[in-house]
Amino acid sequence: MTLDVRPVQEHEWDAAARAYSAAHPHEPLSGADLHKRQREQEDWGYGAATLAAAAGPEIVGVGAYFQNPGSYHPRRYTLDLGVLPERQGQGAGAALWAAVEAALRARDAESVRVLAREDHPVAPGFLARRGFVGDKRYFTSALDVAAFDPAPFAGTLAAVTAQGVEIRSLSELRAAGTPDLDARLHALMSDVRTDVPRSEPATPLSFQVFTEAVLGDPGLLPDAYLVAVYGEDFIGQTALFASEVSDLLFTGLTGVSAAWRGRGVATALKVAAARVARDRGAPTIRTDNASDNAPMLAVNGKLGFVRDPASVSYLKVF
Q1: Which among 80, 111, 199, 281 could disulfide-bond with 313, CB atoms 3.0 to 4.6 Å apart, if both were Cys?
Q2: Spatial distance between the Cα atoms of 246 and 171, rounded to a whole number of angstroms
Q3: Are residues 178 and 244 in the same domain?
Q4: pLDDT exceeds 80 at position 8
Q5: Which residues belong to any copy of the N-acetyltransferase domain (predicted)?
């Protein structure tokens, strides 16, 4: 197969996303998703590129490197790599990685990370042969929305309410004219995300990144961006995001302020999110958690989320 590996051209974002999504059906991306990420990285001054492997007019694979604004380090990068299943084993992945590796070395990169499911037929061996070493494990899991029964959680929800906690949606908070809403949501996320287990240490999420990447995400569902409110305080959050290429809903960060953990707030937020998903007719909610995030894994297990095979974070140090 004769390949041309080069930056994705303006008319190729959808084709690149189709190739990536075919390789990673549990984490589908649209062309708009890929393009938005590239634009954001450039706007934030990060190092990023999205490359396509083209066989004639066909985009057979995509490789992207970028930087994580929530775990930012100027010399550490994240990799996405995917090749159409019917084109795997023909050199496209190797060619894409060779181009990405050369670009990262030219940037004096310290390391790059990539997630791969442990049951993937190609990825673990492909990465190991190129010097990647797996360390942290993550679980993605799915909730069958139609089968979800909130009744067993009535006692927990009543206890949360009895503590004076309300669950309010972003739509409701906006309609109520909540003062300094965006700044308060940013402060809440900054609070609850600091000790979430992750592969790289958390770094502060700037207000610009928060407003553009979270509030500005076209997939964000304002009715399913839920905030736990106690008096004037925001004490917890969860959010659901839709995708234009799938009928699945994807969970953003679920977190609760330290003083309120273990008091049912996270469960109340997740139950409320499942009700929003049911009302929308969504079939499935997907989420992911680090394998050592025992509290959230326990909440998801109680709610009925079913785990996929684990994904492994692979690290390559240059």
Answers
A1: 199
A2: 23
A3: yes
A4: yes
A5: 3-155, 165-318
